[in-house]
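Batch manifest, entry 17 of 40.
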Amino acid sequence: MEKVHLGQGQWRLREAGTEDWIPVEVPGEVHLALMRAGKIPDPFVEENELSVLWVAETDWEFEGVIQAPKDLLNQEKIWLHFEGLDTLAEVWINDKFLGEAHNAFRSYEWEVKDFLKGENNQLRILFRSPVRYIAARQKEEPLFSPDQSIQGGPYLRKAPCQWGWDWGPMLPPIGIWKDAYFVGYSGAKFEALQIQHKHLFDGSVEVTADAKLIQWTKKHLQMCMTLQDPQGHIFATTCKFLDGNARATIEIPDPALWWPNGYGQQALYEYKFHWLPKTKCSWISVIFSLAFGSWN
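Output type: structure tokens
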């Protein structure tokens, strides 16, 4: 696997249809970029939120230039992956339209191997006004919204508090709000991974992982799951993929538990998943940490 984060590129932002470009970070958001450029006041001061309502009533365009190293281009398949786009987005790469996003709570990805080049890949993301969108839907059929909010918020998959509440401003953000990157694989890639913990009567914990693999290599692959406890002890198992699915189970006989602050240690277990055979091209791992707890 090879990964290139979009934040490594050169990014700028403008109101759609204008030539007034300003710098923007990725991940990044329109209001913050405008504040840093001196275009708007701090919306959390006094009644400034009212003077910046126009921001969410406007379409905005992100533009970035990204370099693609050879290690990425040599992968058999390459995806452009966004952990979170907020919210109504249209995405292009090198003038090729990839698709649309309309839900801030989910990830989006598109396969882009055929569109990438080694240098100066241009990414454009056009964000449509969320306020204009919900206003049009609200006019067709009104939905209930809090009195202190921009009406019609339930029509868009976006954090409800961003439309305004009795405790918060009417300040719906727009932008790339989570990590974004190119990622390349050869042979196969994990499509989904779900982990479940089951606390047994003898005090042990049974950990079950269900994985789904997208595979284009003809090799017979297995999944390897390893857990490392806070003391460095490693538990491992392997299992075969059948029709792209695999289930691995490990039993931890005497697990270190996560305790609330002041009651004990906050123990974390590091999980690693990869598929075998482990070659230079097909190696891919997923690494993260989880804790065990028991509530009676």
